[in-house]
Amino acid sequence: MNTTAKLPIGIEDFEDIRRNGFYYVDKTALIKDLLESWGGINLFTRPRRFGKSLNMNMLKYFFEYGCDSQLFEGLAISAETQLCQEYMGKYPVISITLKDICGNDYKTALEMLRSVIGRESMRFQFLLGSDTLTAQEKAAYEQLITIDTTNRQMFSMSNGALASSLLTLCDVLHKHYGQKAILLIDEYDVPLDKAQHFGYYDEMVSLIRSFSARR
What residues have CB less than 8 Å from 5, skipping those under 6 apart? Predict the structure, then answer.
């Protein structure tokens, strides 16, 4: 055991932990389990402080295009050569956490959600120059990243664009890459819990359901 390793207190970024000598409890065998029981939707339910957020972040680093395989050297998944060759770094990945969607009212929660979706969408601004997307598809994507001209810290997407934002992002990434996107949503229950506490549960449930609606 490396006694010089540091404890990753409050750190949920897999790359940060692996590059900076923090202790890491190897849970990468989860990747193999996930691939061998592949489903359209997978729900991870574990107790608090089990490491769900770190696991989700680890999945992002494994599957996303541009994956640095060195991050996984010496870990359990690295022994699965076939799986690594087939799946490591082969997907567009959308990753959001809803842990900060804690508005005291629905309007505030919507603004917080716009910010989460908008910031993640901005990682893919290369889509605006994509040769495979139509002008209409680029315009739909651009709605997700447009900043409010009166408040430079807020995104201006309409409620309709917000409701379909994840589907839009999945669609344009699929079209650009020719590969379906992986969507990771962490702490999905937080906005529902806050909505129940502050009295706008029905509105929030309707919005969250729209995220998973299929065309």
Answer: 21, 22, 23
CA distances from 35 to 25, 171, 183 (A): 20, 22, 15
Task: List the domain boundaries for the chain.
Answer: 1-90, 97-179+186-215
pLDDT over 60 at 215, yes or no: no
Cβ–Cβ contacts within 10 Å for residue 94, how many? 22
pLDDT 10s digits, 19-40: 998 889 899 999 999 998 877 7
Distances from the Cα of 105 to the Cα of 132, 148, 200, 212, angstroms: 40, 20, 7, 23
Per-residue pLDDT tens over the stretch 97-146: 999 998 999 999 999 999 999 999 999 999 999 999 999 999 999 999 99
User: Residue 188 — left, alpha, or beta (φ > 0 → left; ψ -120 to 50 → alpha)?
Assistant: alpha
